[in-house]
Amino acid sequence: MATRRRAAAPPQPPAWTPEPWSDGETSALLDAWGPRNIRAAGGPLRTADWRACAAAVTARRAVDGRAPRTVDQCKNRLDYLKKRLKAERSRLAGTYERVEVAKQKEATRLEERRLEAMRDLEIERMRILVDVAISASAVADTATAASSSW
């Protein structure tokens, strides 16, 4: 007895495709979310805070005559942005570390040059003082010799 396999039906396209976020909407979300996140000390936002964030984004969208964003859409967008930020930070961590190491080496080299210049200046200052002392001594000796010849 042979069983027939039916070909799997192609997946149906979603009935609703989410509209991509514009830069202006993302900016409005971050502007609304940032101060609230600081007040919440990095903890979870209250429902009222999320509603206010969604209202700020919706106000931005209303200018263009588009449908409002929901609280869940705002939360999902923020989670996505946080994940992207974390991925970018980890991707660039090696670069930042190399730059910091190079900065430390350069700062050390500049400090060594500064100390060398200060040492050279101090040596030159001491030479000048010795020369002045010798000149003053010679002038004093000449003045003493001239006064004793009277």
Automatic annotation (TrEMBL):
GO terms for molecular function: transcription cis-regulatory region binding. One of its GO terms (cellular component) is nucleus. It holds the Pfam family Myb_DNA-bind_4. PANTHER family: OS11G0549670 PROTEIN, TRIHELIX TRANSCRIPTION FACTOR ASIL2. Residues 1-28 are annotated as: Disordered. It comes from Oryza sativa subsp. indica. Residues 20-98 form the Myb/SANT-like DNA-binding domain. This is Myb/SANT-like DNA-binding domain-containing protein.
